[in-house]
């Protein structure tokens, strides 16, 4: 988008109205609040829905399969952000992408709200994957569009937005978890659908007055020849997929395992291809090429970090259900409620971390050092959850406080890595790829969960110490390597801080 267009957008947005920020931030804050409410509310009970027996309202899948599906689901949700970002950039503009995404997500949750079968679940999964790909990266892009390039409120805007994400993620599991317990899974999923409905209402009602032209531009529209080219390409891919699936599914060749492996390969391949394209593009300058190289180890660290963080809603969710005492001080806890701990700690600690960075000023750790520390805490969070097995054996029910501690430690890492991650991506990705940096950053989460789909299959209650120990240990080893490499990476970053 030209800088003239950028300025025109900023001029069209009312610059006040929400705590000293453009009132459009209110619109985006609540849209994303409700979207994350629906996503994390659904995820908090989905894993149980998959592996609980049919007599308990579940689908009766094997636990390992359920955990692997949770992971590929999470991976695909973030992978589809690449398509969502591209569609907004070249066809719809961000605002329409957010709206269409919200509709798909809402129908995805509605599909789960009716007692149904495994096929209904897969329909819902496709809708939510596509919908989140359209909504999630684009809603964040609109936040950035409302502020002039040098507006000092920009960082604060993203911090406020990040609070919205985590407030939605905090509230939802408490409610869907309670509904699951008292009325059954489908009421929980229905609440997720209602949440997304509220998000859409807020977006539609307030966007005209508050967002101005933000989100309405198509930054890099397709020309006629490209339209034709991409149109035929899409048709070709759809036909090829239909043929391949049409042959392999009835033959029993396209099993869940095959699918999991394919997503696994793609999760690693997609960012690799991205890096090669960025590195080799004629539009990338020599300085930018060096920055791409510096970004690779940071990206790998992010993948490992998110792999552990995301296991909070898979492996640790199963741990909460099966290994944890759920009647605690007279209260009967829903295992889904543990999913509220991560966002709760984020909300409580984010301001403290932000204040700490301001106070430290120039003495704060460098970006690679922050990534290394993020990874260190992730590793420690897994070593901590190994301890109850060590002290009380792998069969005894353990105190829920162990899980609380583990979620707390991973959040210390998340606050080191997550808020700087996106801005580091923006600064290190070549200028020609700036429209796609959001999707590039989400590919770390996609890769992480593709990796998880492989890892979670090794988890079983009687090997839990080995499982947590080896993954936690690997993260700590990687973190030490990153610490040692940090000064070198800083040189390759060519002045980026
Ligand atoms: N939990 C954050 C969110 O939902 C981070 C996402 C990620 O990068 O994986 O926005
Ligand atoms: N902390 C995550 C994110 O920032 C939310 C979660 O894992 O529940 O949104």
Automatic annotation (TrEMBL):
One Gene Ontology biological process: tripeptide transmembrane transport
Respond yes or no to whether keyword Transmembrane helix is given for this record: yes
List the PROSITE patterns: MFS, PTR2_1, PTR2_2
Task: Name the PANTHER family on file.
Answer: PROTON-DEPENDENT OLIGOPEPTIDE FAMILY TRANSPORT PROTEIN, RESISTANCE PROTEIN MDTM, PUTATIVE-RELATED-RELATED
Establish whether keyword Acetylation is in the entry: no
Spell out the family assignment given in the record's similarity comment. Belongs to the major facilitator superfamily. Proton-dependent oligopeptide transporter (POT/PTR) (TC 2.A.17) family.
- Keyword set for this entry? Cell membrane, Membrane, Transmembrane, Transmembrane helix, Transport
**GO MF:** dipeptide transmembrane transporter activity; peptide:proton symporter activity; tripeptide transmembrane transporter activity
InterPro entries, A to Z? Dipep/tripep_permease (IPR005279), MFS_dom (IPR020846), MFS_trans_sf (IPR036259), MFS_Transporters (IPR050171), POT_fam (IPR000109), PTR2_symporter_CS (IPR018456)
Q: Which GO terms describe its cellular component?
A: plasma membrane
Its main localization is membrane
Q: What is the protein's given name?
A: Proton-dependent oligopeptide transporter, POT family
Residues folding into a coiled coil are none
Q: Which residues form the signal peptide?
A: none
